[in-house]
Design a protein that fits this description.
Blueprint (H helix, E strand, L loop, with lengths): L15 H16 L4 H6 L3 H16 L1 H11 L7 H13 L5 H6 L13 H13 L8 H21 L4 H5 L3 H10 L4 H9 L5 E4 L6 H10 L4 E4 L3 E4 L16 E3 L7 H4 L7 E4 L6 H9 L3 E6 L2 H13 L7 E5 L14 E7 L14 H4 L3 H18 L2 E11 L8 H10 L3 E10 L15 E8 L2
Parallel strand pairs: 5-6, 5-8, 6-7, 8-9
Antiparallel strand pairs: 1-3, 1-4, 2-3, 9-11, 10-11
Helix pairs in contact: 1-3, 1-5, 1-7, 3-5, 4-5, 4-8, 5-7, 7-8, 10-11
């Protein structure tokens, strides 16, 4: 079996068969429990952008592709890679999808071209024939895909009532969203299918939004203001090619995430903790807003390295900033006993609010993950509350749309801590498909702000 790093590393424009194989390998990895980000990192650089394009499309159409495949192939193929390749090819064969294919790609990639159906079939069979693991099953793949081209309308009628095929989310996720948001559930699920815009946050210590907009305009890039310091690009671009990247003028950050730092009443000289800091977007934002003593904490040392990289690029690193790898739960391993004036508790969650940007998340999560992360959040917020100074504040944040990780979690925290006064905060933000303005194009977040009574 070829490895993902072996896929056509010598060519700037790999043939479709190589891209299909690489995407099948990424899809197989995701179905095996690996994140798409990790799987894509193993793809050779010349193929990575195009592979990411196909992988994003496959993840967004996986429920539909599975339903179609189950009609075409009675049993799961004995080769997991062939099964993944069939899903990738079927996703590309979805009819009337040219517009979404062109918009699928995030800001790291170029637009994905459309392919004629017979080209997709031929190239998928070629990919199977060129791989030792799949070669003996190429006839099964060829026959199944060509049957779909012949009997497409009949197959589509057979899956017409399949909710996973319609909404491209696991059935447990669909049911939870439907029960939680009975008036909005369809908009929430449809919103998760919309490619997220590229949104930036201007580093006001280095530039102004007007300065960045002008530099972008000179480079032929149009940006729309969002909030106090945000800019949303009308068309995604590779971030390293945008003016001001190397100079630290801005960071990539969703409009919903940009609400976090301003909710804390930060002032110069404060002692501040970012308890789950990686990759450092909110850490940087707080440092942009006030000259504070910052501890950026995260349990993942590898991801924590990105915090330092980002702070260096933004020219925010100083002797007042400490970056430390440790678990927020284990206070003895990192806390010196001196309380913090402000604590940002952007705690681990299912990440159900950011599936626009990470469409693999919906397929990686399991229903019991919601309760598991909610338990972890309770333990973490209780531990972090001990570090808050009297009169200080803690902001509870999750990028989730599930109440167990949001409203119910915040209410339970209030019941457990009589000294916690809940202040005004946005609460639950939803990525709604119908909301198309710059101000409302944001991921799903939950915010709750608490003040510690003296």
């Amino acid at each position: 079996m070829n490895t993902m790093s072996d896929v056509d590393s010598s060519r700037a424009s790999p043939p479709l068969s190589s891209l299909l194989l690489a995407t099948a390998q990424v899809t197989e990895a995701v179905l095996g429990g690996q994140s798409m980000t990790e799987a894509l990192a193993a793809v050779s650089t010349p193929s990575r952008a195009a592979t990411q394009a196909l992988a994003f499309h496959t993840m967004r159409q996986l429920g539909w592709a599975r339903a179609v495949k189950n009609q075409l192939i009675a049993r799961t193929p004995p080769s997991p890679l062939l099964d993944a390749l069939a899903l990738v090819a079927i996703a590309l064969l979805k009819p009337s999808d040219a517009a979404s294919k062109a918009a699928i790609i995030d800001f790291h990639t170029a637009a994905m071209p459309s392919y004629a159906p017979h080209t997709v079939v031929d190239q998928a069979v070629t990919a199977a024939a060129n791989d030792e693991e799949m070669a003996r099953f190429k006839g099964l793949l060829n026959g199944s895909l060509r049957r779909f081209l012949r009997e497409r309308n009949d197959v589509l009628r057979m899956i017409d009532r399949d909710l996973e095929a319609k909404w491209n989310h696991p059935m447990w996720w669909i049911a939870l969203v439907r029960n939680t948001y009975p008036q909005q559930w369809e908009e929430v699920l449809a919103g998760a299918q919309r490619p997220a815009p590229l949104t930036l946050r201007v580093n006001r210590r280095q530039a102004t939004p007007e300065q960045v907009i002008a530099a972008f305009a000179e480079a032929g890039v149009t940006a729309v203001p969002v909030g106090e310091s945000g800019l949303m690009l009308t068309q995604p671009r590779p971030v390293t090619q945008l003016p001001g990247f190397a100079e630290g003028w801005w960071s990539v950050q969703d409009a919903g995430a940009q609400l976090a730092a301003p909710l804390l009443p930060l002032k110069d000289g404060m002692r501040v903790l970012d308890a789950c800091a990686a990759p450092g977007g909110k850490t940087a934002h707080m440092l942009e807003l006030a000259d504070v003593e910052m501890l950026a904490l995260d349990s993942d040392a590898k991801r924590l390295a990105r915090v330092t990289e980002n702070l260096d690029r933004l020219k925010l690193n100083s002797s007042k900033v400490t970056v430390k790898a440790a678990s927020a739960l284990d206070l003895d391993s990192w806390w010196d006993g001196k309380p913090f004036d402000a604590v940002l508790a952007d705690v681990p969650c299912t990440a159900s609010g950011i599936v626009r940007r990470h469409p693999d998340i919906r397929w990686l999560r399991r229903q019991d993950d919601v309760a598991r992360t909610a338990t972890l959040q309770s333990r973490m917020t209780d531990a972090l509350w001990r570090t808050v100074a009297p009169g200080g504040h803690m902001l509870y944040v999750t990028c989730s749309i599930f109440p167990a990780e949001g409203a119910r979690q915040a209410a339970a925290f209030s019941r457990r801590h009589a000294d916690a006064e809940r202040l005004n905060a946005p609460g639950q933000l939803l990525p709604i498909a119908a909301e198309a303005t710059a101000e409302t194009q944001r991921d799903g977040f939950f915010y709750a702000l608490f003040a510690k009574q003296s």
